[in-house]
Each structure stands twice: as C-alpha cells, then as structure tokens.
C-alpha cells in the first residue's frame, strides 16, 4: 500500500474535546467553534452527543447547538447517540449522521455506557436499523483498541469482534479509538491489519488520543495501510470523562500541517483552522495544545 493522496479529517473537538472540560462551555461558544471549523473547510465536524445529561452534563445542550449552527453544504455534522432515546433526539434536530460507540474492553463498556459489549450490540442494532431506515448515515466507534484504562492490554481479537458487529449493523465506517493514547506505531499497524481483514482499510478511521505523544507517528504508520480518515480535535482538545488520565485527541492543526507538508490533500485552510483553535483556547483561557498552532501563532502575532 502507498500513502493516500487525500485524507478526510473528522474534527471531534466540539464533542470529544468539550465533553471533557470540567467547566461546561457556553452553547454560543460551541456554535461559534463549529461554524469556524466548517468555514475552515473541515469536511466533518462532530457537533455533539445526545447522551444522558446525567452522565455527561457537558453535552446536555446538543439540541440547542444543532439548532444554532450554520450548516454548510458539503460539511457533515455527526453526533453521538448511545441508545434509541439519543437517536430520537438526533432525528428531532434534523441530524443526518449519527455515531454509535462501543468498546473492545468489557470494563470500559460498563463504565462508559453501563452495559457489556454483547448488550451494547443488542442496544445498537435497532438504533442503527432505525437510523438507516430514516436515511441517515451511521458511523461506529470502538474504544480502547490499543489499551484500556481499567484492563491494560486489549486483545486485537476483541477489536476485530466489535468491528465485525458494527459492520454487520450497517456502519459505513468504523473509527478505532486509542482512548488513552498508549499505542505505538507497530502495535497500531498490527491492529489495523487485523481489523482490515474484516472491514476494508478505506472504511476505517483513526481516532488517536495523544496522551503519550505517539499519535502523529501512529497515524503516519497506519496511513501507509490504506486508511484515509483521521479523527482529530482542534487545539488538541479532548479526553473522555470515563477514561481517567486520557488527554486530548491529536491536534487537528498538527495533522493538517503534516499532511500539507507531505502533499496529501485535506481541503482545510490551515490558517483558518489555527484561528478556530485560537478562538476556543481563548475561551478556555489556555494556549492551543498543538505544537504547529503555537509555532504558527508565534510567527504571526
Ligand atoms: P443508564 O443510566 O444505564 O441508562 O445509562 P438509563 O436508560 O437508565 O437512563 C438514565 C437516565 O438518563 C434516565 O433519566 C434516562 O431518561 C436518561 P431519568 O429517568 O433517570 O430521569 N437518558 C437520556 N437522556 C437524554 N438522552 C439520552 C438518554 N439516555 C438515557 N440519549 C447511557 C446508559 C448509555 C444512557 C449512559 O451510560 C450514557 O449516556 N453514556 C454516555 C457516556 C459518554 O458520552 N461518554 C463519552 C463518549 S464516548 C468517548 O468519548 C470515546 C470516543 O471518543 C472514542 C475513543 O476515544 O475511544 C467515542
Ligand atoms: Mg475519543
């Protein structure tokens, strides 16, 4: 396999990033962030999660966020749904794409969605079927593909099993989450090769958190295998409330800078992306957690 010529970036910052903030971010700021990302040319902006507000209060305003954003033609705005109630809320918000989210670790599945892996399949099956019948696209996530905060090592067979189940439910893409950012390139490649045997690599996405600073290296290693979709978070926002110690997703700016330098297209304007990162970092009173963004801002300000 050779490198792809085009990579699709899914910016999960407004969801994965802001769900992890201790202080709940204002709805208006979320809306502004999503609008800035779509105007920067990001083809998919994960706009929120219709999960239980008791579990994740940071996402309780998903309905208001979806109502407030300017939907650009050509931009997708996927949202997370954990169950039928979440799907009903998404349909009421005129969402066109939902993501169901399982895990390769039993302990993480219980902590995150309060059921076993097998039970999650039973829960997701009707959600996916209803969403597909309503003409929506369904994406599937698998957490803990390279390690679990509760169980440590995760067998690749467990990842393959969940990928197969999500594929059978009709997910057009399976996003592989290194939730706690512990993976290294050879392990990441081996995992993609194993999952690629059941879901073709061009229908897989990389969702790597950068806790151990390995995400860019892992992405590069996996792009060589034919994967061409990468989940990132502007300004390196992110984490998971049910994964202690997990830090942000790999920063969108760092990935776009790397891909630009390699001549791999994303359709994203890096300067506007950096400005979107500056906007949300300012709102959170911190510097962007992106080396590329900080270097670019140091030159221009
Ligand atoms: P549960 O407590 O077993 O469910 O939670 P329940 O059905 O008993 O509901 C509890 C209460 O929540 C009830 O309210 C429901 O009505 C309400 P009450 O009757 O007590 O007043 N409720 C809802 N409200 C609004 N929308 C809904 C909804 N569902 C129930 N959709 C449940 C089970 C799955 C709901 C819960 O565990 C949950 O919401 N979990 C989501 C956790 C989460 O969002 N985690 C972060 C996202 S995953 C992630 O970050 C990883 C990822 O980035 C990839 C990676 O990095 O690995 C994707
Ligand atoms: Mg994540």
Order of helices and strands: EHHEEHEHEHHEHEHEHEHHH
Number of helices: 12
CATH fourth-tier homologous superfamily:
Aldolase class I
Q: How many beta-strand runs?
A: 9
Main beta sheet: 9 strands, parallel
Strand percentage: 5-15%
Shape: globular
Mean pLDDT, all residues: 96
| Through-space gap between termini | 41 Å
How many structural units, i.e. domains?
1
CATH class: Alpha Beta
Fraction in helix: 40-55%
Structural class: alpha/beta
CATH architecture: Alpha-Beta Barrel
Spatial extent as radius of gyration = 17 Å
Which ions, cofactors or small ligands are bound in this entry? 3-hydroxy-3-methylglutaryl-coenzyme A, magnesium ion
* Low-confidence region ranges: none
Features:
TIM Barrel; 301 residues; binds 3-hydroxy-3-methylglutaryl-coenzyme A; 9-stranded parallel sheet; 42% helix; 12 helices
Description:
The protein is α/β, with parallel strands linked by helices and 301 residues long. The chain has one domain: TIM Barrel. Helices cover 42% and strands 13% of the residues. The protein is built from twelve helices and nine strands. It has helices spanning 13-17, 27-39, 62-68, 84-92, 106-113, 117-133, 156-168, 185-196, 215-223, 252-261, 270-283, 291-300; strands spanning 8-11, 44-45, 48-49, 79-80, 97-103, 137-143, 173-178, 204-208, 229-232. A nine-stranded parallel sheet has the order 2-1-9-8-7-6-5-4-3. Strand 6, helix 7 (156-168) and strand 7 (173-178) form a beta-alpha-beta unit. Helix 2 packs across helix 3 (62-68), helix 2 packs antiparallel against helix 11 (270-283) and helix 7 packs across helix 8 (185-196). The protein is globular and about 50 Å long. 53% of the residues are buried. Bound molecules: 3-hydroxy-3-methylglutaryl-coenzyme A and magnesium ion. Magnesium ion (MG) binds at residues 16, 177, 179, 207, 209, 240, 249. The site of magnesium ion has 7 residues, from loops.
């Amino acid at each position: 396999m050779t490198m792809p010529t085009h990579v699709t970036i899914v910016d999960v910052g407004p969801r994965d990033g802001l769900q992890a903030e201790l202080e709940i971010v204002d709805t208006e700021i979320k809306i502004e962030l999503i609008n800035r990302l779509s105007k920067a040319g990001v083809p998919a902006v994960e706009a929120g999660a219709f999960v239980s507000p008791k579990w994740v209060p940071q996402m309780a305003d998903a309905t208001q966020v979806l109502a407030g954003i300017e939907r650009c033609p050509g931009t997708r705005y996927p949202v997370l749904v954990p169950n039928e109630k979440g799907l009903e809320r998404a349909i009421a918000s005129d969402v066109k794409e939902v993501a169901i989210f399982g895990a390769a670790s039993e302990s993480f599945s219980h902590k995150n969605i309060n059921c076993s892996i097998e039970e999650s399949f039973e829960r997701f099956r009707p959600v996916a079927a209803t969403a597909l019948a309503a003409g929506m696209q369904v994406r599937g996530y698998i957490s803990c593909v390279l390690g679990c905060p509760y169980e440590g090592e995760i067998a690749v067979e467990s990842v393959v099993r969940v990928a197969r189940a999500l594929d059978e439910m009709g997910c057009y893409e399976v996003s592989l989450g290194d939730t706690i950012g512990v993976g290294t390139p050879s392990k990441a490649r081996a995992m993609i090769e194993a999952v690629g045997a059941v879901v073709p690599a061009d229908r897989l996405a990389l969702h790597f958190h950068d806790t151990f600073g390995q995400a860019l290296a892992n992405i590069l290693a996996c792009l060589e295998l034919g994967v061409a979709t990468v989940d990132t978070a502007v300004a390196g926002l992110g984490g998971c409330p049910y994964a202690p110690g997990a830090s942000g997703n790999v920063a969108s700016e760092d990935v776009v800078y790397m891909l630009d330098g390699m001549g791999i297209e994303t359709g994203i304007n890096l300067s506007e992306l950096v400005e979107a990162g500056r906007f949300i970092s300012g709102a959170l009173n911190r510097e962007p957690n992106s080396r590329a963004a900080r270097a670019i801002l140091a030159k221009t300000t």
